[in-house]
Input
Amino acid sequence: MRRATCPGSFDPVTNGHLDIIARSSSIYDEVVVAVGVNKSKARLFDTAERIELISAATQDLPNVRVEPFEGLIVDFCRARDIPVIVKGLRAISDFDYELQMAQMNHSLAGVETLFMHTNPLYSFLSSSLVKEVATWGGDVSHLVPPIVQERLRQRLVR
Ligand code: PNS
Output
C-alpha cells in the first residue's frame, strides 16, 4: 500500500490545504492528515476541533484519515510506515524553509518529501490571513469550506 502524510497546523483548514489533500489522495492509496499539536503555540481552534473540521471537509475522500501528532513528523511517519510527506508550495518564499525541513527529515529517517504546487486559485491563501479577514467580518466563503466559515463566524465575529 502506498501511503503519504500531509502534515500541518490547519488552524483552520483552508481550501488550499484541501486541494493538496484531495490531489494527494488521488495519487496515494492512503493519506494521513497529521494535525500538529504544539502546546507552546496559541491556536484559535484546539486540536480536537481542527481534526473535526478536516474530517468533515474530507468525508467524501474515503482514503483520507486525520490524526493528531506531537513531536517529530518523522516519528509519526515511522510508527505508521509512511515513507512520504506531501507539502504544498504556494510561492518561492515557502521554498527555503520547506527545503530545510525536507532535508532534515530525510537525514533523520530517510523520509521523502514531495512538493506539490498549490492551485493558483489559492496561492495567496493562508490560515492566518483567513483568520484576519474573518475577524473583521470579511467574506471568506470562497477560501474555506462552509463548516469552517460557520465556525469562524461563531468564534470571531462579534
Ligand atoms: O501548517 P504549518 O505550520 O506549516 O505546519 C508545520 C509542521 C507542523 C508540519 C512542521 O512544523 C512540522 O513538521 N513540525 C513537527 C516537528 C518536526 O518534525 N520538526 C522537524 C522538521 S525539520
